[in-house]
Amino acid sequence: MSIKIDYELCSGCGTQDEPPCIKYCPGDLIAVDSEKEKPYIRSERDCWDCMVCVKACPFNALETRLPYQLASYKASLKPQVYQGRIVWQLKDARGKEEVFELKTSG
Ligand code: SF4
Ligand code: SF4
């Protein structure tokens, strides 16, 4: 599995030296393409799908693509973090969406 970046939603985080997706990836797997001024993942196979970058993106531009064996091609999972809750958006291979909302302590 790996993340997918939606370049329509990604702002590049403007003038920030280190956009949140880069800052918080524990594996240092995301870098900025200096020409496009947008991030990319250096090595998809090294991503272990912790989703820290997905949660950190303020523009909801990242998602986790679920593996074919688990959920078929194009299925995705996107957590969004809010004060006191987390919302999980699950999209199956046919595009059907389900949303799960859980309370959190933070
Ligand atoms: S945090 Fe989100 S909007 Fe900012 S550069 Fe990364 S993917 Fe793009
Ligand atoms: S899912 Fe985790 S390991 Fe993979 S790129 Fe994002 S922060 Fe890094």
Automatic annotation (TrEMBL):
It comes from the Bacteria. InterPro entries: 4Fe4S_Fe-S-bd, 4Fe4S_Fe_S_CS, Fe-S_Ferredoxin. Coiled coil: none annotated. Gene3D superfamilies: 3.30.70.20. It comes from Iocasia fonsfrigidae. PROSITE patterns: 4FE4S_FER_1, 4FE4S_FER_2. One of its GO terms (molecular function) is 4 iron, 4 sulfur cluster binding. This is 4Fe-4S dicluster domain-containing protein. Signal peptide: none annotated. Residues 1-35, 37-67 form the 4Fe-4S ferredoxin-type domain. Keywords: 4Fe-4S, Electron transport, Iron, Iron-sulfur, Metal-binding, Repeat, Transport.
